[in-house]
Amino acid sequence: METLINFFSTIPSSYRSALLIGGMSLFWIWESAVPLFRFSYNRWQHAALNIFFTFTTIVINFGFAVLLVWASDWAVANKFGFLYFIEMPSWVFALVGLFALDLVGAYLIHFLEHKIRLMWRFHLIHHTDQQVDVTTANRHHPVESVFRAVFTILAVVISGSPMWLVMLYQSLSVAFSQFNHANIEIPEKLDKIVSWLIVSPNMHKVHHHYLLPLTDTNYGNIFSIWDRIFGTFAYEDPKKLVYGIDTHFSESESEQVAKLLKIPFESYKKPTQN
User: Distance (Å, rounded) from C-alpha 255 to C-alpha 250?
Assistant: First the structure.
């Protein structure tokens, strides 16, 4: 455990970049070999659009990095956060911290983005993708990236997570987000078993169905327990799903960067309740 703590306490930016690029490359190859859906699209053009949003997310997260480090250092120095309520072994400390960061920094903000209209205006850009694959993982409007950065800081303060734990969580978050968005086919029985602990690919694909109520399910990123606890879990045959969002289903609204950046500022379109 000490080795893990030391590694993530000093993890270089180059390692984190390698994780992002390496994970995307791995799942890109996996998608090519065993795809869930055989999309008829220009894969490189689609990837370029989503990588643009990945880049904006990286820039915004970099901008919030100082606040994130400050919040973590302050919480640790003042023993602020429920991780300090009782003494616990380091592995329990890490596990509880990961669950807390995932609950507030992923599940809660994601849930609110679907329930608060202002937030949904920006989050729906993620849902406009009609060819969900590994590159979709970081397809977030820049303003949504700000929302998520703020909630990550909030999660750090509430839990009192030290920076090594934050770095561990963010590394896992990148990997799991790529995994559950990847256009990969996994045996249904195996996927269902996996989905009892972590968010599996088939489980998350339900969230990308173009119509309610399925759009408002499966908000988790790493751990599937939150959806099961809060009653937002759903499981459907992935082959019957249609990706996208019914309010913005035209190609111009899903495959053009300029249009995607402007959509949140246009007139609100109410989703169809199926």
Answer: 9
